[in-house]
Amino acid sequence: MKLFTLVHKGLEELAKQEVKELLNVDSESFSQVVSSDIEKKDLFKYLSRNQSSKRVLLSVDNGKIEDMDYSSINWKDVLSKELTMKVTVEGVSGSEKRIDLAKQVMGKLSSIIGKQCDFDVKINLKKPDIEVMVFFNGKKYFIGVDLAGELNDRAYRLFPHQASFKGDLAYYFLRKSGIQKGEKVLVGYMKDGTLAIEASLYLENSMVSSPPFVVEKMPGFQNLAKYELKQNEPNTVIAFDSGVQSFIAARKNVKISKTNVQVKKWALDELDTVCDEKSFDRLIFHITSKDEVKLNEIYYQAKNLLKPKGTILLIGREHWEVSLSEKFVLKEHSKLVHGNGAYGLWLLEKK
Fold it and tell me: Residue 27's domain is classified under what CATH number?
């Protein structure tokens, strides 16, 4: 079966890598979309474990909207006469254009489904059972049936911090740190704990999203075996912040996530008194403008806490002028566009 994985712009290569790691399958990437052919039996594993996606769609077709083949899938596997459906359009500017395009696609779908099935499509614009997504990435259209909803809106993130980000972006950042299985990680200025939780989920080989998924309503997917983990891999992820609000929010989110993140109410300048020297492989700091003045202290603590060749990833505003320490080597400087701005990323390795 062919899937379209919708991702944040800039996460395409990571999404391809993740499909390869989870399923040993090669993928094709487009802007904001990764196309993969997977075994049907692996679907629940992919939906449960992947961390980089926004949505996962059962592929219908892609290309020019007027050339779409809506009969490329068996709609009897997707719909029954009891299920309702709607068409949602993303990536197209203007509400009127989106509405017109949704009506156009729904009209063609209704005709095809009517021919394949023995019933008419029931439309529900508010709370449909099944949602067909029409996504425009700026160059071409991708149409598919949404299988699991918004996967980057993590169920554990009930107490969000205004300066934090969704699960897919957090996962991107932690993979940028060079994180490897079995390593010990310290996350500074943890906000709502999302970065630390995503690190723990990755290191544990844990389930990121749990059933039930939308796809379980579809007739052709009723008998698929659910993916279950026998045992999570042990890991050490510690997250700290000196703020009471962040400490409470992170602790609650960690509890919901059922990960093993250790949440600490520590100040930056006391790290060398509460942590063992050279005890971490990776340090990740999400630094907002008010904490930029503490960069020298971060370098001092990182020098003490990191193992030889360990790395520190600094996540900050795009135009932050980071002064580099002679105790570290700059391995990579990049940015990730987000909304109307961008995050700057600096990956440094301890000499």
Answer: 3.30.2130.30
Integer Cα distance of 6 and 54 in angstroms = 5
pLDDT tens digits for 46-91? 999 999 999 999 999 999 999 999 999 999 999 999 999 999 999 9
Q: Is 19 inside any structural domain?
A: yes
Is pLDDT above 70 for 230? no
The whole model's pTM is what?
A: 0.95
Contact 215, 147 (CB under 8 A): yes
What CA–CA distance (Å, rounded) separates 272 from 77? 58
Per DSSP, which regions of 137-260 are E strands?
141-146, 184-188, 236-240
Residues 191 and 55 in one domain: no
The CA–CA distances, whole Å, from 117 to 111, 128, 132, 250, 345 equal 10, 19, 17, 49, 51
Q: What is the CATH number of the domain that holds 233?
A: 3.40.50.150
Q: Give the burial string for 161-192 (b: 16+ CB within 10 Å, else e).
A: beebbbbbbbbbbbbbbbbeeebbbbbbbbbb
Give dist(CA 313, CA 178) in Å, integer: 9
Q: Is 31 helix (H, G, I), strand (E, B) or coil?
A: coil
Residue 228 to residues 42, 48, 50, 200, 211, Cα–Cα distance (Å) = 12, 9, 14, 18, 10
Is residue 248 within 8 Å of residue 225, measured between CB atoms?
Answer: no
Contacts with 260 (C-beta within 8 Å, 6 or more apart), sequence order: 200, 204, 232, 234, 235, 236, 237
Residue 102 has pLDDT above 70, yes or no: yes
Domain extent for 92: 2-146
* C-alpha to C-alpha distance for 247 and 192, rounded to whole angstroms: 8
pLDDT at 231 over 80: no
